[in-house]
From TrEMBL, chain A:
Main location: membrane
UniProt keyword Ribosomal protein, yes or no: no
Domain of life: Bacteria
UniProt keyword annotations, A-Z: Cell membrane, Cell shape, Membrane, Transmembrane, Transmembrane helix
Family label: Belongs to the MreD family.
Gene that produces this protein: mreD
Membrane topology classification: Multi-pass membrane protein
Subcellular location: Cell membrane
UniProt-recorded name of the protein: Rod shape-determining protein MreD
Transmembrane stretches, start-end: 6-26, 33-59, 71-88, 95-116, 128-147
Species of origin: Microtetraspora fusca
Length: 167, 373
């Protein structure tokens, strides 16, 4: 129960911080904090919990006030990302986190291209995605470490050593 | 094995739920499921966002100060120069004031070009490069804001309201790839459509103008105002949008395409206004800023930007934040224009592009050399 509350709290804080602080910094590209938190939680807690957390986090992104697009787009993306991160995280936690952080933006655009008709696909992949991926890449280990830290203090779970392979 | 099967089952259910959400959201719009959900989210997250903005305002101000530091000295010089200029102009303005008053009375146009505006502050921003670009502002249905109202700031058009909560509302920006606004070239009747690009591609921070008549000559430096629609929704007429910066050759196409730089600075939106009542008649070009023909207009623009913002802020502080009273007249800009140069009062006859003055000033911008007409 405490773990679930912690997850909900983390996602909520990440959402608010993302839209009120990160997105308003006068730079073009910022890391996607919510995505990274979901990935970190999924890596720590496994594929099932990852998928559920991803689903609800995505739903929250979809209905977060300055929202204009189709309901359910991020729900789908985050759910899949949570599952994949959890699945890969069983074997190679850090690689899983980084890989998901890099690929998720492209996946979001792909889903967006399928369900909406703005037509932004390829230009985005060529021009913006490398920067977003780089940003996420840099921020992912930090978020992973921070979330893991919080979990260790709260839950007394068997802890993963932050390494390339599970020991 | 059992555990893995359970995981797959639940994943399947969740994905199916997501797809159902997408379908329902597509078909029902805001009416069915999305409406109540978003209402709840609006009140919960809106409150949290407001609180967070209040707490972190000094931090973000510090960051914007840090990024603005290199240009600060330049700006101080520019402001000093402008201050001297303004002082000398003030004397002339006193003389002109009497004349303009007379002129106004004679023409009976005093109410023209006036937007009734509710001032608001941007509290949150959603920006996925290439996909969306929305902001949240701190006024809502309680302040008289409704869907499809125009949002502008001291420089020009910002966007339109797409959703309102009790005390916050969502604004889709002009640079969002999904937004489109009717536009008209200054001093003529050529119509077009302005689309956002959302930071996508080579001219990401510009907006795209498609002119419906492909025979009209497009020139760099021509200015665009909003065209307006019935009852002033979603865009009221006559709001300055931007200035054409690059014309693209599109042989064989039915429309002409150009890229324009918006007047509003979308990187640092702060105080904006929601137009709650459109002007009675289309003010056409009268609200456009001065022609940038003087030397060093870049600095001047910056200075003006600053000035406009501080004025807005003053106004905002002055107004009590109640629903009916929080109204300001933006049309003063137009009046001021008329007051300064009464001989040019009728905007539309200031036709044509800038007379060569704009070309040299753009020369310092990289990537402008290949501009063709």
């Amino acid at each position: 129960m405490a773990r679930n509350l912690l997850a909900a709290f983390l996602v909520f804080v990440a959402l608010v911080v993302q839209v009120t602080i990160l997105n308003r910094l006068p730079v073009m590209v910022v890391p996607d904090l919510v995505l990274l938190v979901v990935i970190a939680l999924a890596v720590i807690r496994g594929p099932l919990d990852g998928a559920v957390i991803g689903f609800f986090a995505g739903l929250a992104i979809d209905i977060l006030p300055p929202a204009g697009d189709v309901l359910g787009q991020y729900t789908l993306v985050m759910c899949v990302v949570g599952f994949v991160a959890g699945k890969l995280g069983e074997h190679v936690p850090l690689v899983a986190g980084v890989l998901c952080a890099v690929l998720a933006p492209a996946f979001t655009v792909a889903v967006g291209g399928l369900v909406t008709d703005d037509g932004v696909g390829w230009t985005y992949i060529r021009t913006v995605w490398p920067w977003v991926a780089l940003c996420n890449l840099v921020a992912a280990p930090v978020v992973l470490w921070a979330v893991r830290r919080l979990h260790r203090e709260r839950g007394r779970q068997p802890v993963l050593v932050p390494s390339w392979r599970r020991i | 094995m059992r555990n893995s099967r359970r995981t797959r089952l639940i994943l399947g259910i969740l994905l199916a739920a997501a797809l159902v959400l997408i379908t329902v959201g597509h078909r029902g719009g805001d009416s069915s499921v999305a409406g109540p959900l978003r209402q709840i989210a609006s009140s919960v997250f809106g409150t949290a966002e407001q609180a967070s903005t209040k707490v972190t305002a000094p931090v973000s101000r510090f960051f914007s100060m840090l990024t603005g530091a290199p240009g600060a000295q330049q700006r101080i010089d520019g402001l000093r120069k402008e201050n001297a200029q303004l002082r000398s102009r003030l004397a002339a303005a006193e003389l002109d004031k009497g004349r303009s008053k007379e002129l106004d009375r004679m023409l009976g146009l005093s109410g023209l070009g006036r937007y009734r505006v509710v001032p608001a502050q941007v509290i949150a921003r959603r920006h996925t490069a290439g996909l969306e670009d929305n902001v949240e502002i701190d006024v809502g249905s309680r302040d008289g804001v409704r869907r499809d109202m125009t949002v502008l700031n001291g420089d020009g058009l910002v966007g339109r309201v797409v959703r309102t909560g009790p005390s916050t509302s969502t604004v889709i920006l002009l640079t969002d790839p999904g937004s489109a606004a009717g536009a008209r070239l200054e001093g003529g009747n050529e119509l077009g459509v302005v689309n956002g690009l959302g930071g996508n591609g080579k001219y990401g921070d510009l907006i795209r103008l498609r002119l419906l008549d492909s025979t009209v000559p497009l020139k760099k430096g021509r200015r665009i105002v909003s065209f307006g629609s019935q009852n002033g929704t979603p865009y009221v007429p006559g709001v300055p949008i931007g200035e054409i910066e690059r014309v693209v050759v599109t042989p064989g196409e039915l429309t002409r395409t150009a890229y324009a730089r918006p007047y509003a600075n979308f990187a640092s939106l702060d105080v904006v206004g929601v137009v709650v009542r459109a002007p009675d008649r289309d003010p056409r070009d009268a609200v456009l800023p001065d022609q940038p023909a003087k030397a060093n207009p870049g600095k001047k623009d910056q200075a003006k930007d600053h000035k406009g913002k501080s004025k807005d802020r003053e106004k905002r502080q002055g107004d009590a934040r109640d629903a009916s009273g929080a109204v300001q007249e933006l049309g003063q800009a137009a009046q001021h224009d008329r007051a300064a140069r009464p001989d040019r009062a009728g905007g539309p006859d200031r036709a044509g592009g800038p007379d060569g003055g704009a070309a040299p000033r753009r020369a310092d911008t990289p990537g402008q050399a290949e501009e063709r007409d």
